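Example 9 (inverse folding). The structure is encoded as follows.
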């Protein structure tokens, strides 16, 4: 018997769609970068796309584990064209900030509903969002400094690894992580 709907479960269901939309957006940025012969930037966004897909599937697994009805929502088409790397990265940063607000709302809804399991589940995502926003902010700053010298962005990405350090055990991924 599926659990009754709550603000938290409604927000979580919507967040599955937001995570899939973020994954699609990152694919679009990666393809744009690939078409502009920016393989390092493209590679970074292909990887980020997989991360966002895995986040959606973590939420799906959580809902399955808690006997919450799962509906996979449709997602809007991504923005596919950008004036340059700075514009693409600024767009991605704004997306990460929006996702952070959504995750914060999920945590607050779980707390307001006295759902400690929901709160605990969202803590990993809160830590992840701190890193995502920080990493994207750094990439925006690097791209702004590089201005029209796109090769400098590529050099930076080739030299630096993704600074993700969320060492907490991630939630299980429905179907397995990719």
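The amino acid assigned to each position is listed next.
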């Amino acid at each position: 018997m599926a659990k009754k709907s709550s603000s938290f479960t409604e927000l979580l269901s919507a967040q599955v769609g937001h995570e899939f939309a973020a994954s699609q957006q990152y694919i679009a940025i990666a393809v744009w970068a690939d078409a502009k012969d920016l393989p390092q930037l493209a590679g970074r966004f292909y990887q980020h796309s997989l991360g966002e897909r895995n986040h959606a599937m973590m939420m799906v697994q959580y809902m399955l584990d808690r006997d919450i009805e799962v509906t996979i929502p449709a997602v809007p088409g991504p923005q596919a064209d950008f004036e340059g790397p700075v514009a693409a990265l600024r767009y991605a940063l704004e997306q990460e900030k929006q996702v952070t607000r959504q995750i914060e709302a999920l945590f607050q809804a779980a707390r307001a509903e006295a759902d400690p399991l929901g709160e605990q589940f969202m803590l990993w995502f809160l830590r992840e969002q701190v890193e995502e926003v920080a990493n994207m902010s750094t990439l925006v700053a690097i791209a702004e400094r590089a201005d029209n010298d796109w090769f400098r962005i590529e050099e930076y990405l080739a030299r630096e690894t993704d600074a993700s350090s969320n060492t907490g055990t991630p939630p299980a991924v429905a179907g397995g992580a990719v």
